[in-house]
Amino acid sequence: MILVTGGAGFIGSNFVLDWLRDLGEPVLNLDKLTYAGNLENLASLKGDPRHIFVQGDIGDRALVERLLREHRPRAIVNFAAESHVDRSIHGPEDFIQTNVVGSFHLLEEARGYWQGLPERERLDFRFLHVSTDEVYGSLGPGDPPFTETTPYAPNSPYSASKAASDHLVRAYHHTYGLPTLTTNCSNNYGPYQFPEKLIPLMILNAVQGKPLPIYGDGLNVRDWLYVGDHCTAIRAVLARGRVGQTYNIGGWNEKPNIEIVKTVCDLLDELRPDPAGPHARLLTYVQDRPGHDRRYAIDARKIERELGWRPAETFDTGIRKTVRWYLDNVAWVEHVASGEYRHWLEQNYKAR
Ligand code: NAD
C-alpha cells in the first residue's frame, strides 16, 4: 500500500486512478477536501476495496500517525497543497499553513514511522514530494531551461511556500536519512483540473460565450505537460529514482499563454462550433497578475537519461484529449462551476 496525500485534487486524483488501473496496489488517500478537492474525480472507484479515502489534514499529526501505524504504507506521495498562484496573492496564509507547516508535520510523522520500521522495510520506504518548476523563479527570453541545480528564486507566496517545503524535504534526507525524492514539474493540464487554472477556465468560458481573460500581453511563457505524463514520471521516480535526489519533469513544450488560448479556441471551433462566430472573438486582455513570472522552462534530461521516462503525449494530442474531456464531462464541469468556484471567480474577475 502507498499513502497518497491530496489525492482528490487534480493531479492526485489522476495519479490514483492511473495507479490503480495500471498497478493495482492499494492506495490510502488522505485529503482535506478544500475547494480544490473533489471526490467526484474518484467516483469510478466507488466500492473498490483498493482505495481507502480519509478526509483529513496532512498537518493533523495524530491522524497521520494513526494512519501510518494502522496501514503501514511502503511509500508516501505528497501532492497535498494549496496550488493556485492568484489565491496565494490574495491570501497567502493557507499556503504557509498547508505547504510549509503541513508538509513539516507530515515529514515529522513520516520520519517517526520510518525510523520504527524493520530494517528491510526501512530500506525500501520512500517519501516522494511533488513540487513545481515555479520554485526556480523567472527566466529571460534567451536563458537556458531550469535544471536540478538551478538556484531557487521563488517569486510568489505559492512558489515560496513550495520552495520552503522542498528545502524541508531535502533537510530531512540530509539530516535524518529519510529516503526522500522530490519532483519539480512544469504546468499540467488534463481531466479534472479545477476551472480556476488557465486551460479549463478558457474551455468553460468559451463554451458559455464568456470573455476569455488574458493576463497582460499574453506572452508569458509556460512549459506544458499532460497530467498522465506527470503521473508516469512520478511512478518512475518512485520506483527507480535515487534517494535524496530531485528530478525535473517537463514536456519540452514552451508556449506563450496566448498561443494556448488560441489553440483551445481553434479546437472548440472544430469540436463545438459557436453560431455566434469563432471562439477567439472572446479574447479579453486584463490587468496583469502582480509579480507575474515571465517564463518557465524545464530541462528534463536527468529523468530521461537516468530513468528512461518520456512523455507519451505531444501538446497537440494532449490538448485535443483535454478539450474533448471537458466537452464530454458536462456534469462534472457544471457541478464544480456552480459552487465555491463561482463565488471566487466572480470576486476575482469582475473587477478587472
Ligand atoms: P489541487 O489544488 O488541484 O489539489 C490539491 C489537493 O490537496 C486538493 O484535493 C486539496 O483538497 C488537498 N489539500 C489541500 N490542503 C490539504 C491539507 N492541508 N491536507 C490534506 N489535503 C489537502 O493541486 P494540483 O494541481 O493537483 O497539484 C498537486 C501538487 O502538484 C501540488 O503540490 C502542486 O504544488 C504540484 N504541482 C502542480 C502543478 C500544476 O500544474 N497543477 C505543476 C507542478 C506541481
UniProtKB/TrEMBL annotation:
<keyword id="KW-0456">Lyase</keyword>
<dbReference type="GO" id="GO:0008460">
    <property type="term" value="F:dTDP-glucose 4,6-dehydratase activity"/>
</dbReference>
<dbReference type="InterPro" id="IPR005888">
    <property type="entry name" value="dTDP_Gluc_deHydtase"/>
</dbReference>
<dbReference type="InterPro" id="IPR020904">
    <property type="entry name" value="Sc_DH/Rdtase_CS"/>
</dbReference>
<protein>
    <recommendedName>
        <fullName>dTDP-glucose 4,6-dehydratase</fullName>
        <ecNumber>4.2.1.46</ecNumber>
    </recommendedName>
</protein>
<dbReference type="GO" id="GO:0009225">
    <property type="term" value="P:nucleotide-sugar metabolic process"/>
</dbReference>
<keyword id="KW-0520">NAD</keyword>
<dbReference type="InterPro" id="IPR036291">
    <property type="entry name" value="NAD(P)-bd_dom_sf"/>
</dbReference>
<feature type="domain" description="NAD(P)-binding">
    <location>
        <begin position="3"/>
        <end position="322"/>
    </location>
</feature>
<dbReference type="Pfam" id="PF16363">
    <property type="entry name" value="GDP_Man_Dehyd"/>
</dbReference>
<dbReference type="InterPro" id="IPR016040">
    <property type="entry name" value="NAD(P)-bd_dom"/>
</dbReference>
<comment type="similarity">
    <text>Belongs to the NAD(P)-dependent epimerase/dehydratase family. dTDP-glucose dehydratase subfamily.</text>
</comment>
